[in-house]
Amino acid sequence: MERFEQILKDFDFTERDIKNINYLKPVMEKYKEEFIERFYQFIFRFPETKNFLKDDATVKRHQDKLREWYDDLLSGKYDYAYFLRLYRIGEKHVDIGLPTHYVNASFNFIRRFFIEKINKEFGLSEERNQLVVSIGKLLDINLDILTAAYREEELSRYQVMTKLEKTLFVISKKFSDMLDFTLVGALILVSFFVLGLFIYDIYQLVMGIVPIEKGILMTLGTLLILWAVSELMQEEIKHLKGGGFAIGAFIGVALAAVIRKILIVSLSAEKALELLSYGAIVLSLGVVYWLLAKKNR
């Protein structure tokens, strides 16, 4: 961890800011319990919070630690011991697998809470502006130290690798990126083919090559596939930006393709058995899609 004096300097946290925090301390003390209550209301909106706060005993310990952090924040004493306590909190977050997104979102709530109470106590004034600036710097420092443990965990994993492991890691990362871009290129190519099929269906319908009823169903089915491919491409672009792999989008394309077949086969009374088999496939894909959607929610 960097020397704490340099961290304070980097964030331009001066003696003036410490005086502002000391001045703010008695004002914010009376809001501590309200902060705890509202903070818990906020974090229990996260889907995975119950995985980390599993029972009443764990919740109580966490609340006690949160009160300690609140008191430390307003203590006006920001030395090496203070920074070490923050870093250990960050390490604990890493150990339990808490997503950094939850930490960042929580600090956004904390910042808004403090600004709300400062506005209530001091109104629109220069004094209020100075207090908001000082507490903002201090919260940014806290967030920086807490997330430093995540950064160092990633670095430590890379540093313990052998030279061969590092080489394989870099090659595999580049190869994975190449495959992702290849997939996007393939999706673009497929989109053109599906667009061509859509135009061909329109052509057959207009020229009377196929019965009007069948032509409309074929066109609607192709349009459904085109929409599904478009959704899949958008999900893959999100994946390239760091998002998860959208298996649900692939299932959506499969559903669209089978539904198109059903629309066409449904016109023929002789293909009842084939229609039933397609129906079973749609049901299976639908169940899988529903399960994935439920898990994501």
From TrEMBL:
Keywords from the named record: Cell membrane, Membrane, Transmembrane, Transmembrane helix
GO cellular component term of the entry, any: plasma membrane
Pfam family, one: Protoglobin
Transmembrane intervals: 181-203, 215-233, 245-269, 275-292
Sample GO molecular function, one term: heme binding
Membrane topology value: Multi-pass membrane protein
Chief location category: membrane
Domain Globin-sensor residues, every copy: 2-154
Subcellular localization: Cell membrane
Protein's name according to its UniProt entry: Globin-sensor domain-containing protein
Organism of derivation: Persephonella marina (strain DSM 14350 / EX-H1)
